[in-house]
Structure to design on (522 residues):
């Protein structure tokens, strides 16, 4: 199975250019799963809620169409961030699209900082996207800090976690090693690079997108400040075997009766 | 507040020598909390259950007496591993002793490999030892791999997690950075060094005991293969503030309704 990420430097508010750049970077690559950054087509640093609303979309609008075209061209399931609109609410979401079309969205459960001013936080249960014999879980950026997200996805059967991100701190990449070890799943963190200085906010995004193996090995690590794309072959069946040795099984050894939720 | 660990190389089955070595290493140090390795007085690599039973103790036997003397001498709460006997069962436990005497034990919830052949796994709820204005949680070695342990201790109010260990793999130390960041607690991992070749088993213990700050900074890291002791001053009140910024609070931001236990 071939999985990859695209590490881009989105231009705020310019969806067309951001689409074009992703398409050009991927070129003629084919894959089974491709992960794009959080909010890859809109940029991140909103100054008002209206700005975010104006860049929001339904599930059959331009981002959905772009991702469906990309999915058909590459043969891959694509997971990429966008602003999802439903009624009066907007969400920091990731869309999952296969060559067959739109498969669903994940709405970020843990909003970081001023995201709370623009977005509603997700209010749907975590789900696994079962497509082409992959069990794909999705989490977004800051969700990494809450071990329950990757854990819940793994317990629901995820083999691989697609993790679109706009990281501004340096801790996540090492933590993803722990997330993989503690759950024996693969993870693909697609981060962005570049800076956004808008209003009083100034974010520098930290790159270093990363593919991490079920056994904690970092299979791919992007530079901190370059646009970058990488694809890796993985054996997803490894993530379905939770045995650590002949006496320990990572999930059977859990003691939920003693855990606090 | 002054916290420390003792990284030793226990001699299998020789409690008296192991006690003497710990005492000598600590010398005239005083502290608020001192953590000793898992099974620091007995060694680890049993070949039969009888061997482990023969080295097991109640809560008022030689290990308890040694730790109480050490606690009075140093002024510190001491957390150290021992084989706890109760009725027909033995447990891989850590004892908590203050200058006032025996405070309680933690019985390891997640047993590693052949520990399952010798020990019963813990069947008591996780608890916090509130002593001298410290809220101390205890976990043992392999418990690190299960994020629910540190999480549950933190949710129950732990400021600092005492973590006696006999680690044989290289992953825990980095993972403890994640455990601290995701819970904003301090951790003290007291590991051992040396080798034990007994029966068909041959373990090399990996040292690198570590004190990690609530913000993920490694405050102390011991060598991989030397007997070592270190004490560090920490501000435990930092672990009681779960705010990440003016909009994010690590615990208030949790979404338990969406987590699987």
């Amino acid at each position: 199975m071939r999985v990859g990420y695209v590490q881009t430097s989105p231009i705020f508010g310019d969806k067309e250019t951001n689409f074009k750049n992703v398409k050009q970077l991927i070129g003629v690559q084919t894959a089974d799963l491709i992960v794009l950054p959080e909010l890859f087509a809109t940029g991140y640093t909103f100054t008002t809620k209206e700005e975010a609303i104006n860049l929001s979309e339904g599930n059959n609008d331009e981002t959905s169409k772009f991702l469906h075209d990309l999915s058909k061209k590459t043969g891959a399931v694509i997971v990429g961030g966008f602003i999802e609109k439903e009624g009066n609410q907007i969400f920091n979401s990731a869309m999952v699209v296969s060559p067959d079309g739109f498969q669903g969205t994940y709405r970020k459960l843990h909003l970081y900082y001023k995201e709370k001013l623009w977005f509603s936080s997700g209010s749907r249960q975590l789900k696994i996207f079962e497509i082409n014999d992959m069990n794909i879980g999705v989490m977004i950026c800051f969700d990494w800090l809450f071990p329950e997200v990757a854990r819940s996805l793994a317990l629901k059967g995820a083999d691989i976690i697609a993790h679109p991100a706009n990281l501004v701190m340096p801790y996540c990449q090492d933590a993803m090693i722990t997330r993989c070890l503690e759950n024996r799943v693969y993870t693909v963190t697609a981060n962005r690079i570049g800076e956004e200085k808008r209003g009083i906010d100034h974010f520098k995004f930290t790159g270093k997108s990363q593919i991490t193996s079920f056994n904690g090995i970092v299979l791919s690590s992007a530079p901190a400040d370059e646009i970058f794309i990488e694809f890796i072959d993985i054996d997803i069946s490894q993530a379905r075997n939770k045995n650590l040795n002949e006496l320990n099984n990572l999930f059977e050894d859990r003691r939920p009766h003693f855990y606090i939720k």
